[in-house]
Specification:
- The chain has an 8-stranded parallel sheet, sandwiched between helices.
- It contains 9 helices and 8 strands.
- It is globular.
- By secondary structure, the protein is an alpha/beta fold.
- The chain has helices spanning 20-36, 54-60, 62-77, 96-102, 132-136, 163-172, 184-191, 222-231, 254-265; strands at residues 5-10, 41-43, 81-85, 107-111, 153-156, 175-177, 196-201, 237-243.
- It has one domain (5-265): Ureohydrolase domain (Arginase, Chain A).
- The mean pLDDT is 97.
């Protein structure tokens, strides 16, 4: 990765259905700031979580999503490598179209237990976070742009995918790697020497390491994510998004989870 980083921390609610992810983003942002000696750019103001439909959550997130887009554009225009610490995956509605604009040749590694490829027509839960990747690929209009080529998207560790969502993923040409297929060798084969943008939802991991709101068994282990990161060529990573760390969960001490997140990230900071 480039030597100059820009640290952007999302602190505005973007469809949060729990309170822990905003706190988690704040905690991880503090740790990364301390590690790299960076002053973080804080985007948004926290508000309470609520169980609402995507059609309600999306307009409420307008200011935060616009702020994230603007912060990312500024970082990329300055030649920095963005490190985004976000609360929910839905925050990527504001970032992925800008990634596609600035790095049209980049592969997106969407490291997540879920495909997040539902549309307003297929979503069963109405959760905006489960629709973000489909919006960025142009399957529905979020109002925040698209432009991402689904053939350049690899879902790493995907295992909790709705049937209709699976059909959309296959039809669009997205590659989905189950945890058993998510090896450094396979990822490198798919990346094929191209630049990379990385998104991590910590629910990709086997539960018990880094708490996330939507736990799914059969996940990857932290050292497997670290091995994928370590295998990527130096200078190929154009940016990183880390999302969905549920702070305040009693499953794992918060300090331990934050240290594990930072330790995993360090495999890219070389």
């Amino acid at each position: 990765m480039a030597s100059a980083y820009s640290l952007i921390v999302s602190q505005g609610r973007v469809a949060d259905r729990t309170d822990g992810a905003l706190i988690g983003a704040h905690r991880v942002g503090e740790a990364v700031s301390s590690l790299l000696g960076l002053v973080p750019q804080i985007v948004g103001t926290p508000t309470a979580s609520t169980e609402d439909d995507w059609s309600v959550a999306l307009p409420q997130a307008e200011e935060t999503l616009t702020g994230l887009r603007d912060a990312l554009r500024s970082a990329l225009s300055a030649g920095a490598t963005p490190l985004l610490i976000t609360n929910t995956c839905a925050a990527s509605l504001g970032t992925l179209p800008t990634v596609a604009e600035h790095h049209p040749d980049a592969m997106l590694l969407w490291i997540d237990a879920h495909g997040d490829f539902n549309t307003p027509e297929t979503t069963g839960s109405g959760y905006l976070g489960g629709m973000v990747l489909a919006a960025a690929c142009g399957l529905w209009d979020s109002g925040h742009g698209s432009g991402l080529d689904p053939r350049q998207v690899v879902v790493v560790g995907g295992r909790d995918i709705d049937p209709a969502e699976g059909e959309l993923l296959a039809g669009a040409g997205v590659t989905v790697l189950a945890p058993s297929e998510s090896t450094p060798e396979r990822v490198l084969e798919l990346v094929s020497g191209r630049p990379v943008w990385i998104h991590v939802d910590w629910d990709v991991l086997e539960p018990g390491y880094i708490p996330a709101a939507y736990r799914v068994g059969g996940g990857l282990l932290p050292h497997q994510i670290a091995a994928i990161f370590a295998a990527l060529s130096s200078g190929s990573v154009r940016g990183v998004e880390l999302a969905e760390f549920e702070a305040g969960d009693t499953e794992v001490p918060e300090r331990v989870s934050v240290e594990l997140i930072v330790e995993t990230l360090q495999h890219l900071l070389r």
